[in-house]
Amino acid sequence: MAILVFAEHDNATLSEQTAKALSAAFLIGTDVDVLIAGHNATPAAQAAAALANVRKVLLTDDASLANQLAEPTASLILSLADGYDTIIAPATTNGKNILPRVAALLDVMQVSDVTAVVSPDTFKHPIYAGNAIEIVQATDAKKVLTIRTASFAATGTGDATAPIENIAANGENAGLSSFVENILSESDRPELNSAKIIVSGGRALGSSEKFQAVMTPVADKLGAAIGASRAAVDAGYAPNDLQVGQTGKVVAPDLYIACGISGAIQHLAGMKDSKVIVAINTDEDAPIFQVADYGIVGDLFEVLPELERQL
Ligand code: FAD
């Protein structure tokens, strides 16, 4: 049973999401190859080759793949699909953009957001915004899976290095879409997806100025990423790439501090797998306290500055 893991990378570096998707792949089978599709992506391929137990790395280095647009990338994966029973990608923006296209072109169903591998064809994944876990058996000859990486530990580096095989881009679908621009917010903070600690703010923060003034000092002291509820994002208190939840990012840090967040199911869907949850809320009946390991009933404008002083 051969498995192809489509890697998340920025050509220069390999994302940890790939190493986590790889751990899911090894629960399905042992013959696991990694596909690096990109441009000037040799460094990412070398990083993938160093990961433990990878059979080989397929490197397709071509200008048409520099930004991993769905059409040419899916077409490349499709051209390799004959050799694999299972095709996997981390459930990142890229993975969620490309893999459904692969599944559709293969005419198979995709199993999305896999959180556990029960057997090589049976998987657990959340449905209804994480309120229920479905166990689903994929009976298609080829399985196409996206992996919720927060549920898997990253595969570490191994003693041996896997061979890197160069594969030519097949050139199909290259003109169907074109890359315009990527606007990334610059930040020295850890990435929300990989941060060990997240301090997250809700509607109670009241304005972007107060959000900055109260959240930043605590996050700085803890070396934490900052997150936000959708209400805080919609109100303009925080940029939308900070949103945690069903329609934002799904995170599972060691510590999640929810400040002035009520704990709506759509928010919980994005953070309830955090290892330790601390909630600060004036309302002792707020639903967030049902998932919190530690709850502070109090005004965040008093509690957070005090927490910063204590830290
Ligand atoms: P509120 O629910 O208004 O809660 C504010 C909390 O702050 C209250 O509990 C209050 O007691 C407390 N508070 C007030 N003042 C203070 C103070 N001074 N100190 C301490 N606590 C105080 N939401 C998300 O977060 N992420 C998503 O991805 C998301 N996706 C959604 C998708 C859909 C399809 C829908 C319908 C909704 C989605 N939502 C999402 C919205 C979600 O339902 C809630 O509306 C939202 O999470 C509420 O944000 P909040 O907790 O900041 O605000």
Automatic annotation (TrEMBL):
* Keyword Flavoprotein included in the entry's annotation: yes
Q: What keywords does the record list, in alphabetical order?
A: Electron transport, FAD, Flavoprotein, Plasmid, Transport
- Flavoprotein as a keyword? yes
Matching entries from CDD domains are given as: ETF_alpha
Q: Which PROSITE patterns match?
A: ETF_ALPHA (PS00696)
The record's Pfam families line, in alphabetical order, gives: ETF, ETF_alpha
Query: Where does the Electron transfer flavoprotein alpha/beta-subunit N-terminal domain lie?
Result: 3-183
InterPro entries the UniProt entry points to: DHS-like_NAD/FAD-binding_dom, ETF_a/b_N, ETF_a/FixB, ETF_alpha_N, ETF_asu_C, ETF_asu_C_CS, Rossmann-like_a/b/a_fold
| Listed SUPFAM superfamilies | Adenine nucleotide alpha hydrolases-like, DHS-like NAD/FAD-binding domain
Q: Which PANTHER family match?
A: ELECTRON TRANSFER FLAVOPROTEIN ALPHA, ELECTRON TRANSFER FLAVOPROTEIN SUBUNIT ALPHA, MITOCHONDRIAL
As for family, the record states: Belongs to the ETF alpha-subunit/FixB family.
The identity of this protein, by name, is Electron transfer flavoprotein subunit alpha
Originating species: Thalassospira marina
